[in-house]
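Question (not urgent): is this output format expected?
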Amino acid sequence: MNTPRASLSNIIRSTPVRIALWLVLVFASVNLVTLGGAYVTLKAQAEAAIRADLTAEIAGLDITATPNALRRLVEVRARASDPRDRVYLFIGDDGLRAGNADARLSEGNVILSASDGRALSHTGYLQEVRRLSSGILVIAQSLERVEDLRRTFLWLLALSLLPTVVLSLGLGTLIARRSARRVERIEATLGRIAAGDLTARYDPGAAGEDDLTRIGRGVNRMAARQEAATEALRQVSADIAHDLRTPLQRIAVLLDELQSKTTEDDPRAPLADRARAEADRAVQVFHALLQIAQIEGAGARADAAPVDLTEIAREMAELYEPAAEEAGVTLGTDLPETPVPVTGDRALLGQALANLLENALRHGGGTPITVSVARNPDGPVLCVSDRGPGIPEAERDLVTRRLYRLERSRTTPGNGLGLALVAAIAQAHRATLSLGDNGPGLSARLHFPSVD
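Got this back:
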């Protein structure tokens, strides 16, 4: 059994991957809030410790008696300190400065700058500024420790999230790929059932008992019940048609005998003619029902062979050309010059095209009819179109039912089985019958699968 390959888009849209993404989002949010809260707390504590240290040190220098003594003390500490770590600066009222950095005053703020070619910290500073009687004392501590703390928390965040993301998405993708293959097999089974193949069944393979296995078994049970019900209905229809066909044929024979015994001036003659016509119509209905049941019961024919759709369309158009001329209808063709092969039964395909042509002649309102064949990328298409009143969109799915007729068609000849027979032939060839708007008119298309 060929397993459908799970597409990337299906995997991304699958439930396991979506659950994995939600888990990643939840874990990331929790980690972000937790580590973010811890970082904000520790950062505030670190800055508070730096400020306390600066306040204590500046308070110790504040007790120096004279500006010269304070200047010398600042110079000693400045020489022993790297300005990228700690800045000492004293600006006296006399304009003399001492320290390992320079500064300027701007709107009451002290802006530090490098001096003597010694660089400052790129992370900024926390600073304490004290106005003394003899000048301004500035002590600033680099925020490198706070920056190190920030980098540490970023690494912690990355190291905590990366394994979570990789494991969650990896496991989610693996589970999704496995689930996607099984979901696509279920979809393929449902597609075959919807296309009319009621023998289609889902094979769970070696998968264990889980929700998808239970769904697949439910699909199989549904298909089995539908197949049994359809087979029973088909058998009942066939039995009724078969059992009633013989009595109807006998009635037709008796009516023939009655007609032969009546003269033209006999008042019973018109009644006998009408009864004979109705008997013939009933025989045709039961014959069509039997034919549909036989086609549906046979399914895809074992003796199906490649046939040329173009040749069938050309032959049927030539066959119906006299009837079209007699009805005053123009019958045209739009056929390719090269063969368009399909696999099927030549006689059944001819019957389907004949029914479409008769439907167009009967209900096309005398408008031109076109028979066309096209080779599309997704398979050959046989089309019969007219410019008549068409079929209302709401009833296009109903007219392929057995014995269904449009209200306006009840006064015209027919039994409501023509399009039902076409649909049965299409299903037997794994083709689809679609009825569309020809703007105006009806466009009846048979879409065939591609021939490999």
